[in-house]
Amino acid sequence: MNDPVTIGMVATVAVAIISFLVKMMIDDFKRSVGKVGQQLDDTIAKFDDRITKVEEKQENDIKSVQRELSSIKGDFATTFVLREDFFRSMNGVEDKMRTMDGKLDKLLLKQ
Questions:
Q1: Cβ contacts of 1 within 8 Å, gap of 6 or more
Q2: How far is 68 from 72, CA to CA, in rounded Å?
Q3: What is the pLDDT at residue 55?
Q4: How far apart are CA 33 and CA 74, in angstroms?
Q5: pLDDT the model gives residue 72
Q6: What is residue 2's predicted lDDT score, i.e. its pLDDT?
Q7: Burial letters for 67-76: b for 16+ Cβ neighbours within 10 Å, e otherwise?
Q8: d(C-alpha 30, C-alpha 24), whole Å
Q9: Which helix (H) or strand (E) segment is 106 a member of?
Q10: How far apart are CA 52 and CA 28, in angstroms?
């Protein structure tokens, strides 16, 4: 074993084996990183799809609420009466009732 050629050959074989094992480990690491990268890309694509669906649903909901608000605004004039308008209308009704009362009194007094 003291022969320099034998020691050189053993050292060369040992370096070759270690180099081969290191190369295999590096290749395995690269494959693992590649798989993780692919999984990450797939996950990002899924999240993008989910976000797109949520945004579309949100836009549809907003449009629906806007339509409902527009229809409510259109019904405001016919559904709700302002206080002043109500009093004005009631004053008109009271005036007509007074006029009718006066006419009835005149008719009853003539008889």
A1: 7
A2: 6
A3: 96
A4: 61
A5: 79
A6: 65
A7: eeeeeeeeee
A8: 10
A9: helix 83-110
A10: 36
CB within 8 Å of 81: residues ≥ 6 apart: 89
Q: For residue 7, what are the contacts with CB-CB under 8 A and spacing of at least 6?
A: 1
Placement of tokens 């590649």 in the chain: 34
Query: What is the share, in percent, of the chain residues with pLDDT greater than 70?
Result: 93
Total count of residues recorded for the chain: 111
CA angle 7, 18, 27 (to 5 degrees): 160
The letter for the amino acid at 87 is: F
Tokens of 81: 């009466």
In tens, the pLDDT along 75-85 reads 776 667 777 87
